[in-house]
């Protein structure tokens, strides 16, 4: 067996690094968020109009006489949170042998993670919400489920319209 030594390649002139090379990635990651990016401080508000009629609360389309305006503030989610919550909301259907998203569980997780504040607690201190480590407490979730189902459904529908479809 004969072993030969490979000759070194002739010295090539060094080319300057282009500004769009991989070296710019570190600088770009230090930049503040730009167009199309979601940040944890971005919120949106769901507005509902309520009127008391015959001892129950009725949802109204717009502000009118004897109508109360209430707001619910949510934090925007990013795509990673979206995927994580959807995966956590999956259930296995043994009959069809498929995984399906449990929408009730997904909506609960969205509210627990993303709901920041609401004005309903100004009228009823029992509806005050509290957060621990960025998530609603179980007592705050109980406050949410104790409101009228029509109001809860409206809040969830408006929240989902913005989170899933951009509003």
In short:
The protein is an alpha+beta fold.
What order do the strands of the largest sheet run in, or round the barrel if closed? 2-1-3-6
CA-CA gap between termini: 73 Å
Categorize the overall geometry.
globular
Order of helices and strands: HEEEHEEHEEEHH
Low-confidence stretches: none
Return the average pLDDT rounded to an integer: 85
Q: What is the alpha-carbon Rg in Å?
A: 26 Å
Task: Summarize the structure in words.
By secondary structure, the protein is an alpha+beta fold. It has a domain at 77-165. The chain is 32% helix and 24% strand. Strands 2-1-3-6 form a 4-stranded antiparallel sheet. A hairpin with a 2-residue loop joins strand 1 and strand 2 (56-60). The radius of gyration is 26 Å and the shape is globular. The protein starts with 23 loop residues before the first helix and ends with a helix.
Search tags:
single chain, 167 residues, alpha+beta, 4-stranded antiparallel sheet, two-stranded antiparallel sheet, 5 helices, globular
Topology readout:
Blueprint lengths: L23 H6 L13 E11 L2 E5 L7 E8 L3 H10 L1 E4 L4 E4 L1 H12 E4 L12 E2 L2 E2 L1 H8 L3 H17 L2
